[in-house]
Target: EAL domain-containing protein
Amino acid sequence: SKNPGGNRITFFSNEMNEQAMARLELESYLRKALQKNEFYLCYQPLVDLATGKTYGSEALIRWNHPKLGLVSPMEFIPLAEETGLIEEIGSWVLRTACMQNKKWQLMGMHDLSISVNVSANQFSQPGFLREVVKALDDSGLEPEYLTLELTESIMLRNIDYSISVMKALQELGVKVSIDDFGTGYSSLSYLKNLPINTLKIDRSFINNLRLNTSDIAIVKAIITMGHGLAVKVVAEGVETKEQIELLKELKCHYAQGYYIHKPLSSDDFEKGLLATPQT
Ligand code: C2E
Ligand code: CA
Ligand code: CA
Ligand code: CA
Model:
């Protein structure tokens, strides 16, 4: 052509179009995913380090699209947040997780707990508390068996409003956990005012946990702080026996990770637990 510079511009804008198209395509698939039943939940066991027993699980969403295959939540949850789809998806996760956990309790795992991730836009919507109440009512799950995992980014948006919602949740009997603890703002002065039951240490601190690393000092400090604040501490991302042994020594309450169990389908979770009765 006459103008190579012009071609270059066309080339770039085509590439940008492609990215925008891919995003639009993903978004349009995401809009239909609920009705088409493409979501399901996996359940990753949470164990009590003192007894080695599974006391509950974390529900983790999975999206299996017929054309794209499995799409990671790291990819579609942010998109769901941006497009407002998170309200519907989050509500589906909450209801499905509560129902499943109640079903397992009725099968004999009476004290089993369920943890559910809540994203920022879901937490901030005015109807959020009502939705939690409805999920509990409809499933028959008692509130003490439900833990909601919130990230620090949620609280940074509007700390006073967040605290009031967290307090209301606790008044219902629902437990509140801070997820990915240590990666966000984590100011110690705000922590003492937060109505929380659990701190979940981010897996980046646990993954590298070995004797004589600086991570050990951080993890130890978080656990000590948890004991001081009468808050339970969970270590996520436990991948080795050495890490488990260390966490036990440090008196960490709970753990979760590939070394213990990967996220399991509901069937596998059920089979595993029934094979080894927990009580
Ligand atoms: P998260 O809440 O921090 O969840 C833990 C993630 O770590 C999960 O990834 C889990 O599969 C993974 N994991 C567990 N044990 C190990 C381990 O030993 N090593 C390593 N490397 N990873 C481990 P997943 O399922 O891909 O979820 C990623 C993130 O997507 C979650 O991080 C959470 O932020 C978000 N997410 C997942 N499900 C939901 C949901 O239902 N609602 C919302 N709002 N977010 C969700
Ligand atoms: Ca989580
Ligand atoms: Ca986490
Ligand atoms: Ca995370």
